[in-house]
## 1
Amino acid sequence: MADTKPATETLLEFPCDFPIKVMGLANNALAQAVLDVVLRHDPGFDGATMEMRASSGGKYVSLTCTVKATSKPQLDALYMELTSHPLVKVVL
């Protein structure tokens, strides 16, 4: 019998390092807000590893956080909380 995985499965093997890119308006509160959310889902995350890049016009900023992903539900919850934050425009 063929081994089939449910559609909810992922190609990722856990645990793994998983980069998440968050974009929003350049705002002093954005980095702290993203850090607070990430720490709720990955308490071992080191905020000093967060990468920040401003857009060419300086209006937007992107933050890259490489989290220790332990499960698909953990990543789903992290994405949901980040995308619902008022300072966040896009999460990739």
## 2
Amino acid sequence: MDIIEKICENNSKKILKAFQINKVSEAHFASSTGYGYGNIGRKIINNVFAQSFGAESAIVSSNFVSGTHAIATAIFAVLRPKDAILFITGKPYDTLEQVINGKNCCSLGDFNINYQICDFLNDNIEFFLKNLPKVVYLQRSMGYTLRKSLKIYEIECLIKKIRKISPKSIILVDNCYGEFVQEQEPTEVGADLIVGSLIKNPGAGIAPSGGYIAGKKELVDLCEQRFLAPGLKNTGASYFNRELLMGLFYAPLAVREALKTAVFASKLFEQAGFEVFPKFHEERADIITAINLKSEENLRIFCKCIQNNSPIDSFLIPEPWEMPGYDYKIIMASGGFISGSSIELSADAPLKEPYTLWFQGGTNFYLAKYTLINALNLILKK
């Protein structure tokens, strides 16, 4: 826990410095309408996020509907027909399936953009890199797999290896769930672009929606024009400037609570005989804990307990459903103030063997601790 506190302290100082250098003031909180011309807050938000991530530039907007939206924007901004993208950390998160090879839906395949998938842990990545892909894609968190999430020094080692073989490749990192878990971000160790969601770590449960793309200026400029339209840089109405800045400011504290919750969950369920990833004593690279609950009934009990111990919608019972972007039913519990927020206490799982649940968030460690104990007791009583 001392390590978690130290990381929180250092990231808090870094973000405070970004606010001070950019002279954030009350005037930057004002919203705008229409085309958003003259919105002085938008530029400040972009600059503060960029500096907090150790990047040259950033585009931050509440109009990104999800992390997947921001990732797709970045991918399509830098790739052209007949280019190639290499997914180097195995099969990417399920919601990118249609982005990659969907039919007649403006996917990469529809634009004749080639892709390959390899796993740097098991495959000879040198073989794949010799094809000189335009983009090399790294997913920082485990997603719906049980591989270990990537720590910053591991990302740095991978980037160095990529640069030796394919020096011109654009290295893009899906940074979801990993922001401020460690003292550096991928852009500080050589990544060209990082992408994430504001209803995860960097929004702290305060930002009501949105996402970000940060990295090298010329690439972020392309992303902005893909997100808007060619020639429409520095435009767009802005509604939540205060919340976006406040969320970033409090993000290290929210991440600290989520990490303490994750460590506690790992220890509690491992002691009860369940398999957990990662173990409680292992270094963390994101806020996610995977728990193999062994049965569909246990998944339902756990998710019901999360929902019933939430401040919002505590009276609801989670039911599996065909969630957009997935090929199987998902059960999800999330009683946060922001719909779908996974920095607030939440859990989700595909309804299939081995019935592994992905647990994340918890902006209040003490309430999360209480909820986890209740969930385990109910499962054991069953």
## 3
Amino acid sequence: MPKKYYVYILASKRNGTLYTGVTSNLENRVYQHKSNLIKGFTSAYGVHHLVYYEVYNDIYDAILREKRIKKWERRWKLELIEAVNPDWQDLYGNESGFPLSQE
């Protein structure tokens, strides 16, 4: 099975502070953020809710997408989230399983 890479967006709350990242293990990475195991921006600002993610087969594509999203206007990021997650549901630990499939 080919390795998967994830571009993800965390939020402190609906329309709150946002963080965009990339990882090869989304479940573990979000757990680290939620548990404040990663010192820095997300722990300082309480950014712990997984509100969006995309799946890639190539790490270079994922990194390029992450860099592009980070440069976006805030409004565009909000629209991206709300297009697939209008209620800003925390996708980590969702009752339908983790991660909530967007493939």
